[in-house]
């Protein structure tokens, strides 16, 4: 049996919280739509407004193997959906439009060329 695992901080931005571990998370209900600005450590420097479900119901197991049901809304729903995207091999780059993706790639290539030039000078 394969294990899918996400770890996230369920607190609202700028509030200290403890980490939640969720094994084999599955979104079983989605409701509404919300657009929220997201960033990702897998793609540093990219921020984009992403449309996701505003409310979700998620099932899975906690770190002790107990069944868990989470009703999430707003920021927490976005965080959970973002982390499940990673499990499915989806990055923030995959959620943005072609034009924004192209602009980001060009900017990144420019930064890489500048960094290479700086290294060559040293």
Structure explained in plain terms:
It is a single chain. With 122 residues, the chain is α+β, with helices and mostly antiparallel strands. The chain has one domain: Peptide Deformylase (Alpha-Beta Complex). Helices cover 34% and strands 34% of the residues. The chain has three helices and six strands, in the order E-E-E-E-E-E-H-H-H. The protein has helices at 74-87, 92-95, 98-121; strands spanning 5-8, 20-31, 34-39, 47-52, 55-61, 67-73. The strands form two sheets. A four-stranded antiparallel sheet has the order 1-2-5-6, with helices on one face. Strands 3-4 form a two-stranded antiparallel sheet. A hairpin with a 5-residue loop joins strand 5 (55-61) and strand 6 (67-73). The model has no long low-confidence stretch (mean pLDDT 91).
Sum up the structure in keywords.
Peptide Deformylase, two-stranded antiparallel sheet, alpha+beta, 122 residues, four-stranded antiparallel beta sheet
Examine the coordinates and then state which fold CATH places here, giving the name of the CATH topology: Peptide Deformylase
Strand elements, count: 6
Query: What is the percentage of strand-forming residues?
Result: 25-35%
Give the N-to-C terminal Cα separation: 51 Å
Please work out how many helical segments DSSP would assign. 3
Q: Helical proportion?
A: 25-40%
Mind telling me the CATH superfamily name?
Peptide deformylase
Low-confidence stretches: none
Mean pLDDT: 91
Major sheet: 4 strands, antiparallel
